[in-house]
User: Fold these one by one.
Assistant:
Number 1:
Amino acid sequence: MTTAPSQAATITIDPWDPGYATSVTADAVAELDASSVKLDLGVELPAERWRPITPPPREAPPGGLIVADGVRRIEARVWAGDPSGGMPVPGIAASCAAGLVRCVPGGPAALADWEVSRSLFTPSPAAADLVTRAGTYTAVRAPGGTAEQLSLALQRRLSDLEVTLATRYRSAAAQDDLLIVDGPLRGRAHLPRTVGYVKTHHAAYLKDAQAAVLAGLKPGQRTPVFLMTTSWERHSWYLRLPTPSTAPWAGIARCEATADLSRKEAADLADQCAAVIPGLAGVGYKDPRAPQNLVPIGGLEKLLRHRLGDAGILYRALRTAARGA
């Protein structure tokens, strides 16, 4: 619980629909232009010997598979007044929810844990928690007031929530499960046996012969593991999920794992993902993002959006609370 400043900022709700002027997606922020990325293609195979890799038959992870994901929603754009008389600064009132789904061999997927967080993001140092009849929006200091800075602050809160849930679950459960987190691994690479699952591509990192290997993947096959460095370093590989389309990028997902793994550990983890993830692929008549949007992710997102609550009720509660602040 944060401590309210001696003189709190006044909060005014912007009348515009909060769906307008939203920032870029979290994946777009994390995936930089390919020209700024350094690749070491020889981690598993020399670059000149790259080929599609079919993982050997294997059983599912002994502890099962855990899928982590989260959703976020901006409920209102706000203005935080300056108690000293300066210009108000922008902010957002937003909610996010994170959850874990456990998939065990031969059994149904089950919700393992979930949590909702509501926050008031603004660069104002005078902002205090905003208490509404629908819940409390905890004041969080954002690095700035641009749409991108506020959205990144919200995304960091969501990532922190996912890490908290995964750490809490694993402290009470077996450590031999495999954790798949939706999106880049950044900020979560310290979690053991964890893979970032990137289903939206904003840059084509592989070129020439390696790009041809990627385009030639069949469902269930993967590229060799390579090392990828931007502002941080991680192992990565591409795999193709089952899809009726023959387009070069159809069914392609990219996986990320910590750079701390040995060559053998990274290759073994990539094989395990290529053996397990295709079986979770979404289907087109249920999900327009199929097959990359995995069935457990799609189901978890639907449940978490419901747990966020009614956006209209929350917006009205925010306006009422702001008038009384």
Note: The CA atoms of residues 41 and 47 lie 5 Å apart.
Number 2:
Amino acid sequence: MTTEQTTAPTVENAAPAAVDPRLLVREAGLAGYLAEFKRKLKNGDLGSVPVVLGLILIGAIFQGITGDFLKADNLTHITQWIAGPGLIAVGVVFVLLLGEIDLSLGSLAGASAAIAANLSARAGYNEWLSCLIALAAAVAIGALHGFFFAKIGVPAFVVTLAGLLAWSGLQQYVLGDKGTVNVVHDGFLANLDSYFLGDGDIAYAWGLAVLGTALYAAGQLLDARRRTAAGLAARPMGEIALRTGVLAAVALTAAYTLNQDSGLPLALLVFLAVVVVTDFVLRRTSYGRQIFAVGGGVEAARRAGINVAWIRISVFMISAGMAALGGLFYASQQGSADKILGGGNVLMNSIAAAVIGGTSLFGGRGKTWSALLGILVIQSITTGLDLVHVSQAIQYMITGAVLLAAVVLDSVSRRTRKTAAR
């Protein structure tokens, strides 16, 4: 009687385990990064490439037509005008990451501006306190929206649609019969949009460019050191130097351009600070990872122990707070709070900015830098069309076409990633 013996395969005879090509990118040098870039494009992971190319194309077209688009004063005005809708768009990014929508942000912006202007100009409150009260009221309203959505189960679309009507009514009630409240002349609120750091002192723009580049380089080096110590693939020094060099070129060029006009606008500084802080929260904190997890799959996030209700409520609080801050910049820009502030295309431009910048409408993918890139696209188009005296009706149609193109690109990319099992 013979006995069959089953021999277990040795390590040498075993088939080699499949290795994720993304783990080999940094070991292969430049060729590895080119292969990784091609793989991302093939899988529909386009990132910010279409937006950056779009900005370059927009600048080239309008500069060729007008000859004035790239002048320092025009670019400075663009950096001022993007703060209001851009800050609202940052809040939109948070909501979209959950795969939801907030239709009340325009009304919240208008109501918050009305509260701040009314308290400071009519009631005589300190302007800082008036603005803080307006921001706190907006955050409380956001918590109310989130409560009805997360706890009661009312769809976010319905809750925020009701909010759009209710807070628009609150805005008109606060403003009263006159319908307009002028902000305090040369006060804090009035200077939000018009103030330049150092009254045109060139050191501020140069300092921000150098400091931002230095902090980025330090962060990259620290991250590489930690990954190396943990035995993980890390960016080589050559890539870090290249990335830092590109950022330095962009930052220093922007600083030089701003200094050709009036220097560094306070509005731009606040907007950039908000984008950087919120980006850090989303990418570097457990709270941010929980937002992505909930947006990627509610049931999976719940089974992983995430407090889904709290994440949803807190996200609507953040979006409402960002809308209120954006509303204050709108009031500063026009010198008053009125019944039409926050109406018109404010909400649509903010949503469009987030989507055009690369945030997915389907949840789980995006970053707050999308708000900056997207609002730059929208404001550049608007400013360029103003320079060639195109009517507002045509501007709406062009902006709508750009938004549709961004959504189509997002849908196609999502379908391609599904096909690639990502």
Note: Residues 106 and 346 are 6 Å apart (CA to CA).
Number 3:
Amino acid sequence: MSLIVLGTASHVGKSITVAALCRALKNRGISVAPFKSQNMSLNSFVTADGSEIGIAQAMQAAAAGLDPTADMNPILLKPKGDQISQIVLLGRPYKDVQIKDYYAETDRLLDTAVAAFYRLQALHGHVVVEGAGGAAEVNLYDRDIANIRLARSLQLPIILVADIERGGVFAQVYGTLSLLPEDIRPLVAGIVVNKFRGDPTLFATGVTRLEELSGIPVLGVVPYAVMDLPSEDSLSLGDKQRRSDCTVRIAVVRLPRIANFTDFELLEQHAAVDYVTPGGSLSGYDCIILPGTKNTVEDLAALKRSGTAADLVRLRDAGVPIIGICGGYQMLGTRLEDAGTESGTPGTHEGLGLLEIVTGFAGYRKTTVQVRRRARPLGPILSAMGEVKGYEIHMGETERGCVDEAFEGDGAASPDGLVFGTYMHGLFQNPSAVNALLGYLHARRGETFDPIGGSVSDTGTPCVRGAYDDLARHFERHVNLDYIVSLFGDPQVRAAGDETTLEE
């Protein structure tokens, strides 16, 4: 048996709740896998077999102690702009579609998702399903394959998650339940109130009133907590808290179609990292990073229109390190030759000219692969990195000509090593890469930097020591996990839960 976690809105904490459940059940000896039928995100991950899925499902798989697979997120939508998204189907690029045309494929895509769910359940026994956005989007009920139509197909118990930090939690819960279709409403078996700031016992009367209004038990009030886990999508950018006690300042250019900004979350823990929109000031930063993007051509045009492209050239002349990841790496070159597969219109586009490389987009092909590479001994940063792990997700191919590789088999670097690019996402999840960059930047300031420890896993996901167990303990302290375990309806699961004492 399995269950579904739905939300009253986007960003209420569904992904973290699923991760917490996966880890808590794993710690009770229960085999469980995560699943999200349809995800819309530019933060993605590459599995061992080269499949692309949402990074949240990779994180949840790690919480469950599993290697991520395409079945955990069979449909991934990656917005490209102008109401066009790329469909990644079972881990592989399927096609680019206008959103209005996407809905014409709803029935077939739902069948694909349901089949993936049953494969996971057959393999692992139990599945925790995550919905998408808000569950009560009444105008989408006929095509909502992430919430209503999926719930109707699977007929599983539902836990509804609400976000009290936003305010209006009573309206969130009561409104959502009132608007759910009549055949779905009885499936809701419990409510979790998330992101409470302060002592959750102060909401005791609120719990009572919610239960009176809904007729459904409130399973817990979970206090707000900052967890060292990857962010799911761009909504999380607004939650980032910049460190104010660090002298080293790094600017990540917040491209309009920024992708995989989770690449920099380890850096955020040890430096003052700002996400600067095109046109924003880059003065005073010790390093500039151009991140990945879902549309290199359009985001490069945004840099030029805003004046940021000229600023980058000026900063390079001033000796500021400039690093490009994936699409950001492509922008560093002299030109982009697009046959129309990247921007939709054939053309040649002048790059930033910081590296003598040329990138071509000649066909609807995507590279998705996990990699392990050694940095080349070029300049003070790359020379100190050693071997690193990560993964590639990109359209287009780059010709280096006579330019030196930044890593063995990948990327390019200037002779002094202060400008370099790579297709490797996850580079700065490697402590050795963080140490190399921050060690150099601190040394330029005449300061010392104490290296950080740790590693990344063989799958390339961040190894955050104890983070998943911390999350599970936090969840169990405030949520009736025994009741949730009972929802699985499997006597063996209930017995496994009975043998474990909740940590108070």
Note: The longest helix spans residues 106-124.
Number 4:
Amino acid sequence: MKIIITSIFVQDQDKALEFYSEKLGFVKKEDVPVGKFRWITVVSPDEQDGIELLLEPNDHPAAKEYQRKIFADGIPATMFGVADIQQEYKRLADNGVKFTMKPTQMGQLTIAVFDDTCGNLIQIVQK
């Protein structure tokens, strides 16, 4: 068994697709109509056959509440790995991404957190 898709709740699929592709640099893999929503996934440009991130609508009341509460408590919804966190922080900040935590060393890891503008905090980590 292996992980092939993971998901993140988003408030607006179009806005999320724009942010994750244009600001972060992910590549759209799937964009298929499913009822009133779409099955939209993005992948790393370096691993286009790798794990997909599903931009899942938070239409269900439980999803909205979960997303709202973890955001309010400052809990990242997911984590992305980076090779050079200082370089990635600069690239993203220069691209208009708003960080809630600048790169900070935590033991053997360095982490930073940003707002994805779609209801989530996202953590990047350099091991």
Note: Residues 2 and 73 are 30 Å apart (CA to CA).
